[in-house]
Write a structure and sequence with these properties.
70 residues, alpha+beta, two-stranded parallel sheet, 2 helices, 2 strands
């Protein structure tokens, strides 16, 4: 029963990351999702750019480098 005593179990998950390697991130992300659900989570949240492995800082840095090198 997921809603015992009017509470829902939530999970926040962040698998180990390698920058810019989505193929590397898919399997661990799915495995951690399944683990959280098996432990009773009814909602599982992941980092916004977790599959791509990018952070906003990485993307901003790329824009600056592109602009400077042109």
């Amino acid at each position: 029963m997921p809603y015992r005593y009017c509470f829902a179990r939530l999970a926040a998950v962040l698998p180990s990351m390698r920058l810019a390697d989505p193929a590397c991130h898919a399997e661990p992300t799915i495995a951690q999702l399944r683990e959280a659900v098996a432990k009773g989570a009814v909602m599982v949240v992941f980092a916004e750019l977790g599959l791509s492995g990018y952070s906003l800082d990485d993307l901003a840095h790329d824009v600056v480098i592109t602009y400077v090198t042109q």
